[in-house]
Write a structure and sequence with these properties.
The protein has about 180 residues and is mainly α. It is globular. The C terminus is likely disordered.
Length: about 180
Amino acid sequence: MASRSLPQRVARAVGESPISERVARAQELAYGQVIEWVRRTPLHTDVLGHSIHPSLTDVTAGCWLSTSLLDLAGGSESRRGATLLAGFGLLASVPTALAGASDWVEMSGVERRIGAVHGLGMDAATLLFVGSLVARLRGGHRIGTRLAIAGNLVIAGAGFLGGHLALNRGTARRASKGEAD
């Protein structure tokens, strides 16, 4: 048997962790009513044959990565664009998070625990980007840049866990109505 790669070992450790289970329980308490509401909205649909959440993540992550690229490579003339992208990423994060939460509530076991840690990481990244946007709007571009970079680093880890769920564990797949699994 081949040895597992480091990323596989990390995902397995997260999925088997009792701390991850506590995170999942806390999220159920914190977000329970919102999750139940969103399950009755178009954000929880099988029209694509899979969850809409992974598609929405591209918008959020794309805005936020572009924010940092402008910060690092665009110079002072790109500050307005970076600020707009940070804000658009925050707007996009709302339906993205809601769609992910509505998928997560249907998970159990290892997937539920990995999803909970993924969600916690994305919550942390979102808060970093809120701080980044506030700092930028108050003229603190340097701290806004640092918070955005920190947010993108958190997204890299949380996104890895989300990608593991969707691609390795198949949680993004949804059978269309009438289609057998």
